[in-house]
Amino acid sequence: MQDLLYFIQQLINGLTIGSTYALIAIGYTMVYGIIGMINFAHGEIYMIGAYTALIAITGLAALGIAWLPLILIVALVCAMIVSSSMGWAVERVAYRPVRGKHRLIPLISAIGMSIFLQNYVHLAQGSRNIGFPALIEGGFRFGAEDSFQTSISYMQVTIFITTLICMTILSLFISRSRIGRACRAVSQDLGMANLLGIDTNRIISATFVIGAALAAVAGLLLGMYYGSIDPLFGFIAGLKAFTAAVLGGIGSIPGAMLGGLILGVAESMTSGYLSGEYKDVVSFGLLILILLFKPTGLLGKPEVEKI
């Protein structure tokens, strides 16, 4: 029974981290699905969302506001607005001017934007770790008191519920809204969508904005979960989310969700049963195995060139 409870605990921890990886990975996979490019500045946008949320929380505390739902809503809205604006700016500055050029050019442009944003936060906020307040405390415990107990915190429940809500809203938006249908059309054939009167520049910008908004949600959730943030906070998470997107099938939104969950569970199980030092080895080893036997990822589809 103790072994089973321990396994369930690691599974809960893995799904918690995997849920946030999935939120970030959607930004990578949406941009790739629309324009066939990787937004390597996406991790930094996620990091800026976390810093924005922290600044909003600190400001509300300074004003004497202590009602938790209001603090969370204001922090989330502020983070989403700032991150979405950053996502829009990255597309206009780093991608639109070089769209249609050789693929190395937008890649280098995105890496340059990533380094710029990272150093901007270094200068503006300092390079040290900053504590993130634990706004949601407490949780549930299962098992006998004199043995190992499985616990799930209210923070983890919040992450699960928020991720589920975001995924549901995104799925409905993509499948039923006018902009969502236009996104699907642009992802299938950018040139034809342009000929049919779809404002492709507007749709591409909307894709960056949506991905950045989801990254901001993940930034707030992981900031509260880990309890601290720093300017490199986005680099590692962005790399893991990119891995999740490739694992699930880059360009596939369900693949990004699945890849994030698998990656999170793999890391948690490795930390729980082997050592935390090996979790990255196992995660990237899993990615290599998947790409060796299924290069398009778990849910990815092979590209078909039209002649």
UniProtKB/TrEMBL annotation:
Residues annotated as transmembrane: 20-38, 45-65, 71-90, 102-121, 152-174, 203-226
Q: Which Pfam families match?
A: BPD_transp_2 (PF02653)
Instruction: Please tell me where this protein is predominantly located.
Output: membrane
* Gene Ontology biological process terms in this record: D-alanine transmembrane transport; L-alanine transport; L-isoleucine import across plasma membrane
Where is the protein found, in the record's own terms?
Cell inner membrane
A GO MF label: L-phenylalanine transmembrane transporter activity
Q: Which domain of life is it from?
A: Bacteria
Keywords of the record: Amino-acid transport, Cell inner membrane, Cell membrane, Membrane, Transmembrane, Transmembrane helix, Transport
The membrane topology noted for this protein in its Swiss-Prot or TrEMBL record is: Multi-pass membrane protein
Answer whether the UniProt record assigns the keyword Amino-acid biosynthesis to this protein. Answer: no
Q: Name one GO cellular component term.
A: plasma membrane
* Similarity comment text for this entry: Belongs to the binding-protein-dependent transport system permease family. LivHM subfamily.
The record's listing under PANTHER family reads: BRANCHED-CHAIN AMINO ACID TRANSPORT SYSTEM PERMEASE PROTEIN LIVH, HIGH-AFFINITY BRANCHED-CHAIN AMINO ACID TRANSPORT SYSTEM PERMEASE PROTEIN LIVH
- Please state what the protein is called: High-affinity branched-chain amino acid transport system permease protein LivH
UniProt source species? Marinobacter salarius
